[in-house]
């Protein structure tokens, strides 16, 4: 693609995280002023890390709301969820309030830095991360990664819960 929606795919593919890779250390700012460090904040639990395009994206909001609706099932399964985007603090706070999001949400993410560390696709004009999702095991290793180059193609709660149930029933090969 060219023009304002060009995605720097070559750069993103250099660090594409896949199964078994250790999720890189990312420190995110939350609207409450607290910092959250991934994957440490998810240690000991399965975790879901969602990169969303921004509060303006209806597909992203639908995904975040779906994960919020499933929050009780995630808690029962011992799964923690974190989301992040390039949105600034006020946009993020408004999105959290409007949609009743209770899991941690990071704001003001440096898209290029996160892309370099994870392989997430970046839209260059305006700059934002494309939808990307990771399921991490309790040690912080990637179980599955879903990279989207556009608005659609993303993790859904039922798939994540099914994967975690399966992983908890399968003997470890360690």
Oligomer: single chain
How many domains?
1
- By CATH, the superfamily comes out as Glutaredoxin
Question: What would the CATH topology be?
Answer: Glutaredoxin
Beta-strand proportion: 15-25%
CATH class: Alpha Beta
Q: Main β-sheet: number of strands, strand sense, barrel status?
A: 7 strands, mixed
Q: What is the SS-derived class? A: alpha+beta
| Annotated CATH architecture | 3-Layer(aba) Sandwich
Description:
The chain has 174 residues and is an alpha+beta fold. It contains 6 helices and 9 strands, in the order αβββααβαβαββββα. It has helices at 9-13, 58-69, 71-76, 89-99, 111-118, 157-169; strands at 26-30, 35-38, 46-51, 79-84, 105-107, 122-124, 127-129, 132-136, 142-147. A 7-stranded mixed sheet has the order 2-1-5-4-3-8-9. Strands 6-7 form a two-stranded antiparallel ribbon. A hairpin with a 5-residue loop joins strand 8 (132-136) and strand 9 (142-147). The model is unreliable at 1-13 (pLDDT under 50).
